Amino acid sequence: MSDPIFSLNDVTKTFRNVHALDHVTFAGNPGEVVALLGDNGAGKTTAINLLLGSLKPDSGQAHVLGMNSARQSQEIRQQVGFVPDRPAFYDWMTVDELGWFASGFYASGYHERYRAQITKFDVPLKKKIRTLSRGMQAKVSLSLSLAHEPHLLILDEPTSGLDPLIRREFLESMVDVAARGHGVLLASHQVSEVERVADVVVILIKGKLILKARLEELKSSACEVVLGTGATQVDPHDLPGRLIHRESSGHQQQWLMLDADPEQLKARFDEYDGLNYELRHPSLEEILLQMLKSSRVDKQNESGSSAETPHPSAP
Known about the structure:
By secondary structure, the chain is of the alpha/beta class. 34% of the residues lie in helices and 27% in strands. The protein has helices at 44-52, 73-79, 95-103, 110-120, 134-146, 164-179, 191-197, 215-221, 262-269, 284-302, and strands at residues 6-15, 18-28, 33-37, 59-64, 67-68, 80-83, 152-156, 183-187, 200-205, 208-214, 223-227, 242-249, 252-258, 277-280.
């Protein structure tokens, strides 16, 4: 197997006694689209800034393309494409002038590739940046990031507030980058769209790594269980798989199980007389929402609640 194209190894980063990242380890390989998911404050942007060398970890190490992020930030930025949520431009320049200006930081051929990408996105070269819509400016940002043919493309909430067509163009570009054997790290709230392109999913909640899995394996092993009549006779800890979250509504219970074989679960449930149940495969968005619910219940428990809810843990 090839070396990871980027990695965080047991990284901790604290701001004013708040753990933005707490002993986090994950990596991405060439040819993969890695989706970094979590709610606001989960640590996604902190992880990206550590990889780019904009921040230094309190402990642990970050590497990109075999280089130490804390010591080789400048070299890394030469070989990585980065698309932030709100890019900062010299907005008095035209689209073409901005590409010419950026080409001074890279090897020959950059401006020509930038123009080709801009043309592909149907952005007028002679328009001033400040006159462009947010969607058009996002296309300019992506074109700037792709023109030097980066080995790794990092995107931090790049499609937030964009219309569906532009978001789809972004997603298609990510797939193209990965298909060339390069890597993509995508932090996003658009979970349903990420699900269409991600190979690997990393979920952060309050600075902790909760899950890292290949999307295909996660979806095939995740099972939502809805229990009706007879639910009280079932102990989830005696079942195959990991119970991540459960909640009750009247006489009905809803569980999220990971690392579960639906056929094995069905066979076990059928052993209980009169048990009314339903099994289904949840979407990635539903899995994330259930994990966030579990985290919030855990926080309530820590503050004095007596409710008992399982806590998800990274494999």
